[in-house]
Design brief:
elongated; Rossmann fold; alpha/beta; 13 strands; seven-stranded parallel β-sheet
């Protein structure tokens, strides 16, 4: 039984959807219990044939813990695999009411106690991962962040990287890219830089705008920002301050990220914190290189200078220079994209993720 806070658009929800939709063996033996919803991705889960049960309409429903215990007693799963902070809290703190022998696994999709957006989540995390049978960390950086906390972590930790279905590793499609450009009314020759993610402080998109503003001094490029969030108004205003508003398109939440990747020239990731960076793997699967800041897990998903390039924080001019050099060297850009595809396909498939998870489950 996978337990998750919601099916709203987010990294954890996408990873679970990828895993269960692509691996029939995992899908047949699983049910997804959602604390509240339905959520933006609920239809996608059901369309993939994944069994889903929602416990409540609102996250404020005080009966959610009781409903979770009842669900576990009704389905009697061997493993309760909890994703995200609140679900992990409920699974750990109420496991005494689960049927005897039920194993509890907590899955960290973020650096331990480093959310920054919700302080209550950071508070909860310091009291979690003590009463479960094991922890899944989506990257070695996440595992290190948990092991290094002052109180330590006495439960077993397994690193299981996030993944994409094998069918996602298509490489670059020029025809799909041209079709996407036509749909967006962007000329075929215009350089496109793409940013993807929730518009929140952690993603550091203000720095992305700084870098792009410097790039605009030498290149007639366009910046596409796919995603929505609480910082959208602030970022829109900042683009006006920088004088680049006419060259930045805020696209909002999109369901066609692969098509946007085919249309763009490279991905720009400027996060201050990133537990894994699934969007970088999504880009690599389309033969699409990434320019990124050196967040904690960056070296696990990017081979600097080979599958992408790392740029420093706080130096927009240096970041813009890197973008300009890549945009001016199509041969290097294509070679980097091909290397990114090979690297990601060798490490980040759902088949490999399922193998690691089943091995960990069996060990419990």
């Amino acid at each position: 039984m996978h337990v998750i806070d919601s099916l709203n658009a987010g990294g954890a929800q996408s990873v679970l959807l990828n895993l269960l939709s692509a691996e029939p063996g995992m899908r047949r033996r699983s049910i997804v219990v959602v604390l509240h919803g339905p959520g933006l991705l609920a239809k996608s889960y059901r369309a993939a044939g994944i069994k889903v049960r929602h416990l409540a309409r609102s996250r404020m429903d005080p009966a959610i813990p009781i409903k979770l215990v009842r669900a576990v007693r009704a389905y009697r799963p061997q493993i309760v695999h909890a994703h995200l902070v609140v679900s992990c809290m409920l699974a750990e703190w109420f496991r005494m009411f689960f049927p005897r022998g039920t194993r509890v696994v907590c899955h960290l999709h973020n650096l331990h106690a480093a959310h920054g957006e919700d302080l209550y989540q950071d508070y909860l995390e310091h009291r979690l991962y003590k009463f479960c049978d094991g922890v899944i960390a989506c990257s070695a950086a996440v595992a290190r962040s948990l092991r290094s906390r002052p109180s330590g972590c006495r439960v077993r930790i397994a690193v299981v990287p996030n993944a994409l279905p094998e069918s996602s590793f298509t490489g670059l499609s020029r025809s799909a890219g041209l079709a996407a450009r036509r749909a967006l009314r962007i000329p075929a020759h215009t350089p496109i830089v793409l940013c993807v993610g929730r518009l929140v402080v952690q993603k550091n998109f203000r720095y992305a705008l700084d870098v792009f503003a410097k790039l605009r001094e030498t290149h007639d490029a366009l910046l596409l920002m796919a995603g929505d969030g609480q910082e959208r108004v602030l970022l829109t205003d900042y683009a006006h301050e920088l004088g680049i508003a006419g060259h930045v398109r805020f696209l909002g939440f999109r369901g066609d990220i692969p098509q946007l990747m085919h249309a763009a020239d490279l991905l720009l990731v400027t996060s201050t914190e990133e537990a894994f960076g699934l969007v970088i793997v999504e880009a690599a699967a389309r033969g699409f290189p990434t320019v990124a800041t050196p967040f904690a897990a960056a070296h696990e998903v990017i081979r600097d200078g080979k599958t992408g390039v790392l740029i420093p924080y706080g130096d927009p001019a240096a970041g813009a220079t890197t973008l300009a050099e890549l945009l001016d060297d199509r041969e290097r850009l294509d070679a980097m994209g091909e290397a990114a595809l090979r690297f990601a396909r060798a490490r980040f498939t759902t088949r490999e993720m399922a193998r690691r998870l089943l091995k960990f489950y069996a060990s419990l």
